[in-house]
Amino acid sequence: MTITETRPEAAEAGDRTIGGDPRGVIVGWVTTGDHKRIGRMFIAVSLAFIAGALVISCLLAFERASTGSTFLRADAIGQLFSLSSIGAVFLGVVPLLIGIAVYIVPLQVGARTIAFPRAAAASFWVWLIGSGLLIVAVDLFTVAYGVVLLGLLTAAVCVASTVLVLRVPGMRLEMVPAFAWAALVQAVMLLLTLPVLLANLIYLYVDHRYARSAFGGNFGMAAYIAWATRQPQTYVYAIPVLGFVAEVVPVFARARLAMHSVVLFAIGLAGILGFGAFAQADFAPGYSHQALNIIMSLAAPIPPLLVLGVCALTLRAHRPKLASPLVFGLAAAVMYLAGTVMGVFTFFSKLHLVDTVWEEAHFNYVVFGSLLAGLGALAYWAPKMSDRLLDDRRVIGLGLLGFVALAIFAIPQVINGIIHQPVATVDFTTGNEMLNLVSGIGAALLTLVVLGVVAVILNGARRGGDSGADPWGGHTLEWATTSPPPPANFSQPIGVVESETPLLDQQAGS
Amino acid sequence: MLALPPAPAPTRPRLLLVGTALVCVAGSMLFAGLLAIYLQARDTAGGTTAAWFPPGVKVPGIAANILVITMIGAVIVASWAVYAIRRGARTDSYVALGATIMFGLAVLNAQVYIWRQMKVGILKPAGQPFPLFFYSTTGTLFVALVTGVVFTVVMAFRTLGGRSTPKDSEGLTALAMYWYFLAAATVAVWFVVYVNK
């Protein structure tokens, strides 16, 4: 046994805090090696950061709507634009989806723990420290950003290793559930792209610390790392959207997914098309006209179209049950598709959409569309995480409101982009102020949706647990264990898995 | 309860090997990014002209070559450690791991020697971006090398404690893989920064 394998007794020790740890609650959480606790910590903190990023987006939209009077300091506006996009991605949506993956993926592949549990715990704390520094210490921006990336990269290694190595006997890679596959693809793409961002940050840090000559000092730095929050890189952050929608559609249609292998292919393709480390405008000014970049952007809508097509085939043949995860999942996939279609138009140079708020709308569709998927995943797996079904009617309402809020948030930016309102500034002569106000209201509504989902989860936690092991009639292995799962995830050996839907096979056989 | 056919006896997953491979992939992308940005910045500055490379500064070519040769030596002895433990030659594997640590420290020493010999500061002379890119790239490589030495020390203690055996050489194999990655990164940095400047 190598040091990397967690012994069952270690996993039990990690879980002992559920029933009360003699060392104390705080020590229990801080020293935990249990992937379920680590996942929950990622989820809780990232939701708080997402709400913060949305509030900043609100303030900036209202600032744009109030010409002549400003309520934000001029020197803070640039920093707030950077913080809203970086915060939404690396402090919010990506860690939210990674947190869900840290909790769910080991269960889905039948593993007793996540790979490298101590590294997974370290990844959370490193990410949290980096996030805190990023918010409070402006002078340490590049260092804090790098620390955040190191935390996320470590978590990505743990998630990818779990899917690659710790699968239950019989579960070949093509049998992996769609969400676990999407988590693997996203983790691999993060490992291929975020180190390049780290390389950018190393140069920026050394320049900022010593010379301030090569990268434009405080105000020029943002341009060199902007590729991480622009297309095609943003598509990497949205990969779990496809996995999640492909996960919930067959469950609520009470049927097998029409073409599982096509979904896996589409998710893999989404990863390849999201490789954005080469798209660095300030180092390679001509990249936007390169054939490879144009082809990648034109092909970006194919993966969501494929997945939505397979979901439509599955839903057409069976009358689905309306449930909140389905509403959130479909809303997220539609938003992701809308974002990729917008990305195609960016490359029609005669439209002059580059460097306009069109790009902000694209970002919002893709990144906050992923947020909707994250909230839907919380609703779907809440019974597994806490043994409590959420109030589904309320969550369905929040899902619909989230869809409308994101549309209200982004559509005014689409229109203002067409009339060439410049990106990431409040100084503009072209652009409609009223539309900026509407966009701000959309961001405020989306903030309320996040807070609403959190309130429903907390309310459910207060009421107590009664969901049972499998309240949705799930198809994959996480529903074969108790809610919440026991210390080593499964109380008995699972056996040999023979398809991608072992629980559905059992239902069909019984 | 899920009623599936009973599973065969579990085989030991090669977790550390896969995890190290993923880290090496991420590390390769880090150095690819560093060198790509380096080359782009050099191109923007007009190639290896005075606008890029400070006049009067000499790169200690011999020391840089010795650094690379020492690095290759580290890879060879790390591979020897794996070869030895798989054949049950524990003493040989101890010697090989000790040699790997020594070679790693020698590479670090060579890097520090080069920095001292270069006599070029990040701030002086002003105007040429080369020092900024030089120290950033070689400094990152230095950190990766330190990580490699620490990894080797940990695996050496584990081997001394009997945790590496002919049937379980995964840890040492992962270590050797990491040294292969370090060697590839060192050769790439050497070629771009010291040879092509």
The rough form of chain B would be described as elongated
Largest sheet of chain A: none
Number of strands of chain B: 0
Give the uncertain stretches of chain B in residue-range form. Answer: none
Distance between the termini of chain B: 65 Å
Overview of the molecule:
The complex is a heterodimer of chains A (510) and B (197). Chain A has 510 residues and is mainly alpha-helical. In chain A, 68% of the residues lie in helices and 0% in strands. In chain A, helix 10 (239-253) runs antiparallel to helix 11 and helix 10 (239-253) packs antiparallel against helix 14. The radius of gyration of chain A is 22 Å and the shape is globular. Chain B is mostly helical. Chain B has five helices and no strands. In chain B, helix 2 (61-86) runs antiparallel to helix 5 (170-195) and helix 3 (90-118) packs antiparallel against helix 4 (130-160). Chain B is elongated and about 70 Å long. The model of chain B has no long low-confidence stretch (mean pLDDT 90).
Topology:
The complex is a heterodimer of chains A (510) and B (197).
Chain A: H1 8-15, H2 25-30, H3 35-65, H4 74-108, H5 117-136, H6 141-165, H7 178-211, H8 217-225, H9 233-237, H10 239-253, H11 260-273, H12 291-299, H13 302-317, H14 324-346, H15 357-386, H16 392-418, H17 433-463, H18 502-509
Chain B: H1 15-44, H2 61-86, H3 90-118, H4 130-160, H5 170-195
Helix pairs in contact in B: 1-4, 1-5, 2-3, 2-5, 3-4, 4-5
